[in-house]
Write a structure and sequence with these properties.
With 223 residues, the protein is an alpha/beta fold. The protein has helices spanning 6-13, 30-37, 51-63, 96-105, 122-131, 165-170, 181-202, 206-222; strands at 19-24, 41-48, 70-74, 88-94, 113-118, 134-144, 147-156. It starts with 5 loop residues before the first helix and ends with a helix.
Length: 223
């Protein structure tokens, strides 16, 4: 079986068993291959906007003898993807704003299990999901070396939800049973303290400084 890092393992863990999955931004196709080889998915459509990554994915898929179970498609996001029989959509390895844009283009995605892994701007993605009727069901942190990631599982139900500053920052990470929760919250707290130090040195934005320090306290109490 193909080897994948903890980030991809965490993503795969949120995919429905025996699913028909779309892997958006497949890159080298490692996740798509793992989903089939592990039995997690029965069929995968692997998409990418870049010709070279998709060529690499096709090569790797062929090397593993999975050409009949993994389709590849050169496209931007979910554009042109037939979603009728799809159960799961994975969008990973890109910024939270871009993920939001991809979702917006096919909104509302009813009846789909969404597995989302933003590299940046996770808060903006959470905000978009809450404002557009998607329930964030679970979040799990994952570390690869010192690099921290969060993986979000969401589903559309049409209910608009609030997204306050704390939820924007850490979402449902504190409710996760992952061993990495405390480490992730410490990571977020360090980022906030660094921001607060910058605000102190600039001697500007007292209101922003107080808000940041308040979030430091709230994140600390979630640990």
């Amino acid at each position: 079986m193909i080897g994948i890092d903890k980030r991809l393992q965490t993503i795969a863990g949120f995919v429905t068993c025996k699913s028909y999955t779309v892997d958006v931004g497949t890159d080298h196709g490692y996740l798509a291959i793992y989903l089939i080889e592990s039995g997690r998915s029965q069929r995968v459509v692997a998409t990418d906007v870049g010709e070279m990554p998709l060529k690499s994915a096709k090569h790797n898929i062929a090397e593993h003898g999975l050409g009949e179970r993994i389709d590849t498609l050169l496209t931007d996001g979910l554009s042109g993807v037939d979603l009728q029989d799809v159960t799961d959509i994975v969008i990973a390895g890109m910024g939270g704003i871009l993920i939001s844009d991809i979702l917006e283009a096919r909104h509302p995605l009813k009846g789909k299990n969404l597995v989302l892994q933003p590299m940046t701007q996770a808060g903006r993605l959470r905000q978009w999901l809450c404002q557009n009727g998607y329930d964030i069901l679970e979040e799990v942190p994952a570390f690869v070396g010192e690099k921290a990631y969060c993986v979000i599982r969401a589903q559309y139900d049409g209910i608009v939800r609030p997204c306050d500053d704390l939820f924007w920052l850490i979402g449902k990470i504190p409710q996760s049973s992952s061993e990495d929760v405390d480490r992730y919250l410490s990571y977020i707290k360090r980022k906030l303290l660094k921001k607060a130090e910058g605000l102190r040195k600039s001697q500007k934005g007292k209101e922003e400084l107080n808000r940041t320090l308040d979030l430091v306290d709230k994140v600390g109490r979630k640990r």
